[in-house]
């Protein structure tokens, strides 16, 4: 279960744009967006939600980052992310809260190594296809 | 729903008066009966000028340098918060409230609250 | 003993790392053209650099946040994107200036045209970024850079009129035969040469590479309060040697070689060789450091792994950005734009861009949630705010002056 350092906080304070650190202390990207549960329609029929949304996952990678950047550049960014992804899935990489170990002022720490995260693909591609073939790359 | 859909949305009150633009989401932890802890969207903050808030000047722990904290607190004076129960309708980039602007609470300058 | 060695090395590397092509060119030009009437700009730039460096170093050591980590957290997505991209463009320009400068020095030493040297210098700078351990890079290049002290020695050897130098320094006035806008333009170029964004990015990220923590604050402060001012002193020496030698003959500096000329006059061929060697080391070190800074900025912005502690595959995207920077910079020089022009444009635009990195660091240095008791004190904050005002003024007048004087023509 996630260990939260604060019981009341804002998205800008602790979550958005924060550094993700994996279980071994390696950098694992930044939180580009947050996923909230969809508002349920009010049973009374007022059109509003009966219950406030809850945080369900952290989103990262270009598909999450693009819309936050906004404008034409943001659209292009997200589209590039989708193309790189290659599997036609337009949804950003999700890190469900069950993978989050601790959230505090310093960082957001995950319970798994970054290789197991969905957001690791682009990095792995650069490492394998661009960097590894160069001499002295350490592989 | 994604945070980016809410942040930056325009907010209007029940009379159609502009309230501002969403610039932050306040969360609180709540324990469920089964022992799980959920992180609930407690308040939505809007209005005012977001930049000082973003820099951290919404907090009492920001000490200077003079006169920047004072300036940003002055600019964010008009920040208002509303709860999810105040929301009448969600549209793309627009939040319509069921209450009136005059009834919304001002955002307090907060100190730290630890779990 | 080992600790003392660490301290001295730190200070020495700060001296060696401070002076780069920007300082060499702007100090040479202004010394020959204006005497010491612009020495105040070097002093101002150096003080600002020490204050900024200390804050950035403190934030890196205590809050474990290098500059672009702070920028992304504090400015939000859009403003920080704009900030990071201008920084990257500026850094590429700086890398181009350093690579071009190194190649020009090699041309002077060998007679082989500088454009042929550019690919070799770029490749060598990339190899340092790619494989050389951080501390070795910092120490070797920093210590070799001390050879620039030859300019201080030359100043004592030459028939220097100390009273006149001092008088010009403390009574800055625009020389009668010179245009005011150009004088102000070069004042900004000197400030920009001392207060370079890439050096602060490098300094604070280097602190993370060396795992600074609260207990290293003393060493960090020695670096900033001794190392940077010594670097400023070297810049002043570069300026001052031009006064007794170049100024009476009306020689304008428009090539790195001319900046080394006063040492040749003092000590002949050997002096010239040492001076050129010191230029070579300073510009080459700066080429590697500014390349690394680009990688640091981008990787920190996106939260990727960065640094030289791991083999390149362990920080693949960081290394990819560094490689792309070197290639883009070498390409810029190979367009045959004069490297001296690139240098001047890069230092004045750098001066204009300083608030982008300075302001977020100043803000975080005041956040108790991150720094606890190590937040800025009254003195630092007063200095910090005054300098912020200066930097904003500089940023506002830079581009008009650049256009008005056609880059100091």
Largest interface: A-B, 34 and 37 residues
- The total strand number of chain C stands at 0
Query: What structural category do the secondary elements of chain C indicate?
Result: mainly alpha
Which quaternary structure do these chains form? heterotrimer
Biggest sheet architecture of chain B: 7 strands, mixed
| CATH fold topology of chain C | Amino acid/polyamine transporter I
Task: Write down the secondary-structure element order of chain C.
Answer: HHHHHHHHHHHHHHHH
Q: Write the element-wise H/E pattern of chain B from the N-terminal end onward.
A: HEEEHHEEEE
The overall average pLDDT of chain C, rounded, is: 90
> Using only CA atoms, what is the Rg of chain B?
15 Å
Gap between N and C termini of chain C: 51 Å
User: What is the overall shape of chain B?
Assistant: globular
Number of domains of chain C: 1
Structure explained in plain terms:
- The complex is a heterotrimer of chains A (139), B (115) and C (409).
- By secondary structure, chain A is an alpha/beta fold.
- Helices cover 28% and strands 24% of the residues of chain A.
- Chain A has helices at 11-15, 62-69, 71-85, 121-131; strands at 3-4, 8-10, 19-21, 27-30, 33-36, 55-60, 93-96, 100-103, 108-110.
- A 5-stranded mixed β-sheet of chain A has the order 1-8-9-3-4, with no helix packed on it.
- In chain A, helix 2 runs antiparallel to helix 3.
- The termini of chain A are far apart.
- Chain B is an alpha+beta fold.
- Chain B has one domain: PRC-barrel domain (SH3 type barrels, Roll), CATH 2.30.30.
- Chain B has helices at 3-6, 50-57, 68-75, and strands at 10-12, 18-31, 37-46, 80-83, 87-91, 94-97, 105-106.
- Chain B has a 7-stranded mixed β-sheet, with no helix packed on it.
- In chain B, a hairpin with a 5-residue loop joins strand 1 (10-12) and strand 2 (18-31).
- In chain B, helix 2 crosses helix 3 (68-75).
- The longest helix of chain B has 8 residues, at 50-57.
- Chain B is globular and about 45 Å long.
- By secondary structure, chain C is an all-alpha fold.
- Chain C has one domain (2-165, 182-395): Up-down Bundle (Amino acid/polyamine transporter I), CATH 1.20.1740.
- Chain C is 81% helix and 0% strand.
- The model of chain C has no long low-confidence stretch (mean pLDDT 90).
């Amino acid at each position: 279960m996630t260990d939260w350092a604060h019981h009341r906080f804002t998205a800008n304070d602790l979550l958005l744009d924060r550094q993700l650190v994996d279980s071994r202390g390696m950098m694992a990207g930044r939180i580009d967006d947050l996923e909230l549960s969809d508002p349920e329609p009010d049973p009374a029929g007022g059109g509003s939600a009966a219950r406030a949304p809850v945080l369900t996952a952290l989103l990262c990678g270009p598909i999450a980052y693009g819309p936050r950047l906004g404008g034409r550049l943001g659209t292009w960014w997200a589209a590039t992310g989708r193309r790189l992804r290659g599997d036609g899935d337009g949804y950003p990489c999700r890190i469900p809260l069950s993978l989050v170990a601790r959230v505090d002022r310093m960082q957001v720490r995950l319970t798994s190594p970054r290789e197991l995260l969905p957001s690791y693909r682009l990095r792995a591609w650069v490492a394998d296809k661009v960097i590894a073939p160069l001499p002295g790359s350490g592989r | 729903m994604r945070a980016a859909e809410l942040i930056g949305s325009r907010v209007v009150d029940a009379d159609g008066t502009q309230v501002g633009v969403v610039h932050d989401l306040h969360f609180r932890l709540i324990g469920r009966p089964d022992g799980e802890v959920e992180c609930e969207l407690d308040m939505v903050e809007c209005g005012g000028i977001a930049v000082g808030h973003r820099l951290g000047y919404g907090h009492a722990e920001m000490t200077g340098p003079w006169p920047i904290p004072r300036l940003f607190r002055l600019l964010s004076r008009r920040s208002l918060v509303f709860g999810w129960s105040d929301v009448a309708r969600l549209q793309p980039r627009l939040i319509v409230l069921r209450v009136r602007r005059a009834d919304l609470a001002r955002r307090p300058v907060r100190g730290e609250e630890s779990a | 003993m080992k600790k003392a060695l660490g301290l001295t090395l730190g200070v020495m590397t700060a001296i060696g790392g401070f002076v780069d092509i920007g300082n060499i060119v702007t100090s040479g030009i202004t010394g020959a053209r204006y005497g010491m009437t612009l020495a105040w700009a070097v002093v101002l730039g150096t003080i600002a650099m020490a204050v900024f460096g200390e804050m950035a170093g403190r934030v890196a050591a205590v809050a474990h946040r290098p500059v672009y980590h702070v920028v992304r957290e504090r400015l939000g997505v859009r403003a920080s994107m704009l900030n990071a991209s201008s920084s990257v463009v500026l850094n590429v320009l700086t890398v181009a200036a350093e690579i071009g400068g190194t190649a020009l020095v090699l041309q002077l030493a060998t007679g082989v045209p500088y454009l042929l040297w550019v690919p070799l210098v770029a490749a060598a700078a990339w190899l340092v970024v790619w494989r050389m351990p951080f501390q070795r890079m910092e120490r070797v290049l920093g210590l070799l850079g001390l050879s620039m002290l030859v300019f201080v020695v030359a100043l004592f050897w030459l028939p220097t009129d100390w009273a006149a130098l001092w008088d010009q320094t403390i009574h800055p006035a625009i020389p009668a035969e010179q245009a005011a806008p150009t004088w102000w333009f070069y004042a900004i170029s000197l400030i920009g040469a001392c207060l370079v964004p890439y050096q602060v990015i490098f300094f604070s990220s280097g602190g993370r590479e060396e795992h600074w923590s609260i207990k290293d604050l003393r060493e960090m402060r020695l670096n900033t309060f001794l190392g940077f001012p010594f670097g400023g002193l070297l810049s002043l020496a570069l300026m001052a040697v031009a006064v007794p030698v170049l100024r009476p003959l009306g020689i304008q500096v428009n090539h790195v070689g001319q900046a080394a000329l006063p040492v040749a006059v003092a000590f002949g061929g050997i002096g010239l060789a040492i001076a050129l060697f010191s230029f070579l080391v300073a510009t080459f070190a700066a080429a590697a450091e500014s390349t690394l800074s680009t990688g640091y900025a981008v990787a920190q912005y996106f939260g990727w792994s960065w640094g030289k502690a791991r083999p390149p595959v362990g920080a693949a995207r960081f290394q990819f950005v560094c490689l792309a920077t070197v290639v883009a910079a070498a390409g810029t020089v190979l367009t045959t734009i004069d490297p001296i022009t690139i240098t001047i444009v890069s230092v004045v635009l750098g001066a204009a861009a300083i608030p982008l990195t300075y302001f977020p660091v100043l803000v975080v240095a005041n956040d108790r949630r991150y720094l606890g008791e190590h937040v800025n004190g009254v003195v630092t904050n007063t200095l910090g705010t005054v300098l912020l005002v200066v930097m904003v003024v500089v940023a506002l007048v830079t581009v008009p002056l650049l256009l008005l004087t056609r880059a100091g023509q």
